[in-house]
Amino acid sequence: KQGKAVYKPIYNHDTGNKDPPELIEPNKVMVFEGLHPIYDEKARSQLDLGIYIDIVNDVKFAWKVQRDVAERGWTEEQVRGDIEKRLPDFSAYVDPQKANADVILRYEPSDQGLPYLKVKLIQKKGSQFPPITLKEDLTLPGSPGATLKMYDDDWFG
Fold first, then answer.
1. What per-residue confidence (pLDDT) applies to 157?
2. What distance in Å separates the CA atoms of residue 83 and residue 157, rounded to the nearest whole number?
3. Which of 32, 42, 57, 121 has fewest C-beta within 10 Å?
4. Alpha helices, H only, the chain
């Protein structure tokens, strides 16, 4: 926001350590991503828009199994154990961030089941940003395609 370059820490998932930081030059749009981008009040206060990606457990498990079996040679049971081991930290530090988000993108299995997805854009009411609206449903062609729909609903996360 002050037009200054910053050093971005880099976490190395292979080693579990931090790599040398990367210099990020100022720009009109900066995206801060990771597991905890809106957890800390001081960091959150610097954001113009907080977006939380909310992936329901069925989708998260399917994606993680697909990746870890193919790339890491894990079994499905090892993946399940890894997810269960991390649930307390996820519940304590990651999931609560959605309460502070301006927008939540929620990934759920579609009515057709996985691998097809239903993605909900949930915008906090009373946000500083104008509400996103659709006047009519919008169907996108292609395979698997998509349908965009508008709902007005109360959501409590």
1. 56
2. 21
3. 42
4. 41-44, 57-72, 76-89
Long-range contacts of 62-66 (CB under 8 A, 24+ apart): 62/114, 62/115
- The closest alpha carbon to 26, from 42, 6, 56, belongs to 6
**121, pLDDT greater than 90:** no
Q: What is the mean predicted confidence (pLDDT) over 41-60? A: 89
Contact (Cβ atoms closer than 8 angstroms) between residue 145 and residue 139: yes
Local structure of residue 47 (DSSP, 8 states): -
Q: What is the largest CA-CA distance in the chain?
A: 49
Kindly tell me if the per-residue pLDDT of 152 is higher than 80.
Answer: no
Q: C-alpha distances in angstroms, 30 versus 5, 21, 35, 36, 80? A: 11, 16, 17, 16, 34
Q: Which two tokens stand for residue 99?
A: 């309460």
